[in-house]
Amino acid sequence: MSRYRILPYGVLVAGCLFAIFPYYLTLLTAFKGPGQLFGTAPWEPGLPPSTAAFDRLFGSGFGGYLVNTVAVTVGITVGQLVFAVLAAYAFARLSFPGRDVLFWVYLSTLMVPPVVTMIPLYLMMQKLGLVDTWAGLILPTVLGTPYAIFLLRQFFRTIPADLEDAARIDGAGRVRTLLSIVLPLSKPILVTVTTLAVVANWNSFLWPLIITSSEDKRLLSVGIALFKSEIGVDYNAVMAGSLIALAPLLVLFIFFQRFIVRSVAVTGLK
C-alpha cells in the first residue's frame, strides 16, 4: 500500500484518538482517589482504582437527580414521538390549504437559536404559574420538535402511497393505516428520532436550570454543575457524575447506530 493511501487512514486514526481522549480522561479521573488526582499524570490510571468519588457523589443526592432525569427524559421523549408522528404524517399525506407553506414556516424555526426564545418562554411559564413545576419543565418540548417532524415527514414520503390506498380499500381509516402500515415500515426513522430525543433531553441543561429551583426537581446535568459550586472543585466526583451521565447514551448509540445511519441515508436521498 502506497504512502498516499496510508495517509488518509493515519489522519482518521489521529482524529479518532483525539475525539476519544477526553472520555478516556473522564474514566480515569472518576476512579482516582483524592490523593491520586494530583499525584499522577492525567492520562495515567490511579492504582488501585478507587470508588470514593462515586460514594461522595451519591451521598450528595445524586441518585435523586438520576431518577428525575430518567422520568423527564422518558416523558418528553414519548410525547415528542407521538406528536411528531402525527404532525409528520399530516404534512406527508394529508392535503389541506397551506400545508407546504405551514411546514416550511415551522421548519424555519430551526434557524432561531433556542436562547432567543428562552426569556419569552420563561415569562409564559411564569404567567401560567408553572415555574419550578414538572409541567413547566416538560411542556415546552413535549409537543415535538421541527427536526423530528422533518425527518419523519421525509421518511413517510418514501413509503409507496399504493400501500395506504390498498389499506383504505380494505376499509382502514387514517389512524389504522398509520398504525398498521406506515409505522411498522418506519422502524429505522422511529429509532433515530427516539435516540435523538433521548440524547437531547438527557443532556438538557439551560432550560432545567432556569425553570426549576427546588432540589427535588433537579436534573442530572444541573446537579453535576451545581455539585462543583457547592463543595468546591471536586474533579473526581464531577468526572464520576459525567461518566454516569455518559454511559446510557453510549450504550444507546452502540445498539441502535445501524438504524440511525440507515434512516438518515434514506431521508437524505429523498
Automatic annotation (TrEMBL):
<feature type="transmembrane region" description="Helical">
    <location>
        <begin position="235"/>
        <end position="256"/>
    </location>
</feature>
<keyword id="KW-0813">Transport</keyword>
<feature type="transmembrane region" description="Helical">
    <location>
        <begin position="101"/>
        <end position="122"/>
    </location>
</feature>
<dbReference type="GO" id="GO:0055085">
    <property type="term" value="P:transmembrane transport"/>
</dbReference>
<feature type="transmembrane region" description="Helical">
    <location>
        <begin position="177"/>
        <end position="200"/>
    </location>
</feature>
<protein>
    <submittedName>
        <fullName>Carbohydrate ABC transporter permease</fullName>
    </submittedName>
</protein>
<feature type="transmembrane region" description="Helical">
    <location>
        <begin position="65"/>
        <end position="89"/>
    </location>
</feature>
<feature type="transmembrane region" description="Helical">
    <location>
        <begin position="134"/>
        <end position="156"/>
    </location>
</feature>
<dbReference type="Pfam" id="PF00528">
    <property type="entry name" value="BPD_transp_1"/>
</dbReference>
<dbReference type="InterPro" id="IPR000515">
    <property type="entry name" value="MetI-like"/>
</dbReference>
<keyword id="KW-0812">Transmembrane</keyword>
<dbReference type="InterPro" id="IPR035906">
    <property type="entry name" value="MetI-like_sf"/>
</dbReference>
<comment type="similarity">
    <text>Belongs to the binding-protein-dependent transport system permease family.</text>
</comment>
<keyword id="KW-1003">Cell membrane</keyword>
<keyword id="KW-1133">Transmembrane helix</keyword>
<feature type="domain" description="ABC transmembrane type-1">
    <location>
        <begin position="66"/>
        <end position="256"/>
    </location>
</feature>
<dbReference type="GO" id="GO:0005886">
    <property type="term" value="C:plasma membrane"/>
</dbReference>
<feature type="transmembrane region" description="Helical">
    <location>
        <begin position="7"/>
        <end position="25"/>
    </location>
</feature>
<keyword id="KW-0472">Membrane</keyword>
